[in-house]
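I hope you will forgive my troubling you with a question about protein structure. The matter concerns a single protein, recorded as an amino acid sequence and a row of backbone structure tokens. Please examine both parts with care and let me know of anything in them that strikes you as inconsistent. Here, with my thanks, is the record as I have it:
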Amino acid sequence: MGFAGKLVQFAAAAALLMPAAALAEYPERAIQIVVPFAAGGATDLMARTIANVVSENVGKPVIIENRSGGGTVIGTEAVVRAAPDGYTILFGSGALAIDPSFKKLSYDVRKDLIPITKAAWGPFAVLVHSSVPANSLKEFVAYAKSKPGELNMGSSGIGSMGHLASEYLRSILDLKLEHIPYRGAGPALQAILAGDLQIYLDPPFTAKSSIVSGKVRPLAVTGARRSPLLPDVPTVAELGYPGFAAGHWGGYFVPAKTPDAIVKKLSFEFVKALKDPRVRDVLIGQGLEVIGNSPEEFKKEIEEEIELWAKVIREAGIKPQIE
């Protein structure tokens, strides 16, 4: 073999070694996780709990930066524009699957972010006010069909995951309900407790106290499985609508062009942290299902969700925002 041939062989071997070297060195400094929500909420708690365990495992600080605003867009943009070196990570939500069909974005979720792993997923509880004469989903459907357009369905805001899940449920139940958006989940929950709403979707963790008060009644949960927080409440799928599932989730992303070696390293570390009993106890205690899937699986799920929510938005006649 001549000199040129040996040089090509050496270059090929060096290229193979580069990802391994990058993997061995990463991380060399603190990692920043951008949470596009205000501090103190359930999403923030989830992100901090996982970050603490990842920090222990990698031996470097993992810092949470809350960057809220724009319905998660501001924090997401910050990560999209960050250096693709694994030191700036997004803790994203289901808004990433809704926004492409709902907002004018400066980024493309599919092209500008690389999924790492979905951390956790949670369903909604389908609640009706105690004044509604229905003790089952079947009875509510019959009652709502007898009063088309007269019953109020609330949400935490137009284009929120709760809103889209409600529209999806309304569609498969074939009901005419009046959508009433509120500025956040708190006001919406207060509205159904006061009887201003007849139906509202709320995560089981926050719905439990309202159910105990007797002011609302749970008819179903929107997960593929029953919620451990509401074990006696059947799923929508169980009640004659197979395949229906809608919920909220949190997961990790890095900017496009982040090296594969770093993507794999992050996937390994986050999945490892999600198996830690300290993390699982917090997430399960919030009524969440711990996931920890692969980047490929997570990417496929996001693409499927983008198509689903685009269809729901179109069929519900929801007007996209222009920002």
User: Anything to note?
Assistant: Residues 3-18 have pLDDT under 50 and may be disordered.
